[in-house]
Fold each of these.
Amino acid sequence: MFEDFYIVVIAVLLPLTAGMLVAQRNPYHALVIRGIVGAVAALVYALFGAADVALTEALVGTMLSITLYAIAVRSSMSLRLGLLAAAPCNPDEPASQEPPLAQPLSKALRQALSRHYLRLEIVPYASPQALQFALEKKEIHATCTAVTETLTPTTAQSTASAPYHLSVRLPRLLEIVQNGVPPTLASVSFCRSRQITAANISDSPDARHNIWESQP
Amino acid sequence: MNGILIAMTLALLIPIYEAWQDEDIWQTMLAFASIATKTSIMILVVSVLRDDWMIGLVGVLILSVGNASLMLLAHVLRRMNEL
């Protein structure tokens, strides 16, 4: 019994690391710990003489599955925020890829989302119609629009208490955004996406125009 | 045999504690690299002590594959931080 004591010691590592994996909340940390569990499991399998199982665990369980899951987690755990692209009214500023979003709002939003391990992905759109259509078609999760688009920035800041308006499509995301963004930075509202009929889904500009006009 | 492998297991507990403790993702990746290498070296030690070439071959493959998966995961995480 005592000669095989090391087998018991090594086998105990497997439930230990599995418990660490279950207790982990951050999905990326959980992925790395899944790799650790795979390495320990391959060690235990090799120790018990199952070399083929150990090899399969290392190749599929560790390498393939954590790489695929990393890509899946990375592409799914993000909030896609639609913005209006920079208007060409200011020719002095160099044209930038990133649409304008107020620095404190962007910071508050990123902080609120990172508490839930989400990323902020900014998607620029050319016109308000395209922005609304993207929200209806579930391409984006939320839209951010300036409250007074027509006014100059100085008057907008002086008159409106919240310079931006966030319209969120999903109740859970609305909860997260409302808790994280202070009301002085942006007002937040829930936008229930309407049932889009098959005729409206088509990408023709006429259909897009009809959707926009039928809104109250 | 018993003493060597128990000492290696104790050494393996250090990066496991580090992976459990640390908040930084790159520290966790370092702990993963350490564990992946240590476990495959343990497989190689077991194969030498038991004189089993099949386990030794699998140990060498796991040693290389563990580092490959680490590199793939590091690239995905690095590109996530860039966005």
Amino acid sequence: MRITVNVNGEDRTREVEPRHLLVRFLRDDLELTGTHWGCDTSNCGTCVVLMDGEPVKSCTVLAVMAAGHEIRTVEDLADGERLDPVQQGFIERHGLQCGFCTPGMMLTGRALLDRNPDPSEQEIREAISGQLCRCTGYLNIVRSIQWAARKEAEDARAEAAETAGSQA
Amino acid sequence: MQVPASFDYERARSVDEALELLRRHGEEARVVAGGHSLLPMMKLRLAGPEVLIDINDLTELDHIDLVGDELRVGALTRHRALLESESVGRYFPIVHDAERVIADPPVRNRGTIGGSLCQADPSEDLSAVCGALHARAVIRGAEGERVVSMADFHQGPYETAVGVGEMLVEVRIPVLPGAGSAYEKVERKAGDWAVAAAGVALTLREGRIADAGVGLAAVGAGALNLHAVQTLMNGSEPSEALYEEAGRVASANCSPVTDSRGSEDYKRHLAGELTRRALRRAVARAARSTAREA
């Protein structure tokens, strides 16, 4: 059947079988291979993408079920050359080693900060609890997301100060 | 790569249309909501529906409303919405206890209460929770709606009272004064299915237990409403001796099997111990809500 899914802000139309999984649609049809594909059983969480802003495991969502919805993948995190603060945080705090879980981890981090700009360590750990990382022991992933939260708070303060200054 | 066998896909735009599609396709059709039980089973060829009827657009089934003395929860209500609902937490702390340990956040973003109950897996947490709460299921079909108790809803592993051409549309949970409830689960790792779990709901009336409900998960079929424990508790004053006896009866009245999650003996031990712990917490919570209401 013919479906249109809004992926990273752009409507993408393809002919798919109903049994086609969202992760395959993104990787094979749209060649957005930043979304990784792991256990295929909704356990490992490496295939996490944002569906209408919330993390979902794309190996357990049919592409046809995503029709008419907004999907955001890791390819959409950076704005041109400017990295998202979450991506920068993973660099600053060494949040990855092999990188397999990283796209899903960063998207979950992004979704968390969009809802809760100042999460506690426990809230970060809870948010990423559906995604496995075999390299970092999670500590550096938590620190990466904390770095991004602090950076965004600082940037917001700087912007507010600038606005106030220009009004004075 | 695991891919389901071929099927046709229909997206319902109203409950009536979903019912019409279910009638038209009969036995070969399955409703899909979150899909986090059904799709893995289809990948493994444990389920092979010819038609999937997607109900994710039916927002009229996504609601949590207090109506009179019951909370009405639409079948399409996601786990996440239950966990984030203040009224669910206030009236039924057992639901929040369970939701915190059901799968993980991305799965809870998709999975629904209706899907959990209709899957009717004896290891599934919300079935035991709804059993303990004496919830009722609203099933709609061409002839209109019927309301069944959880005991009648669950007819066996993976079997429910929902007939061909019907669908679960709502779950109704009685809100009782002086109520307390709790869920206790042991899992091998975060987000896993239970090795065993116990849910207890009750009220305290003049110091005695009433309206008791006990539901166990992952210890065999038929444990979603343990009448023997409920009968023992109703009319009794809470005491450690009562909890001890309730645990013993729960342990004796379930039928766990040895598998990769644990031995039959271990699960029986857990059924008893978790019943005692859930009972203790449910009584403490009921005492607090009685004090608040006074």
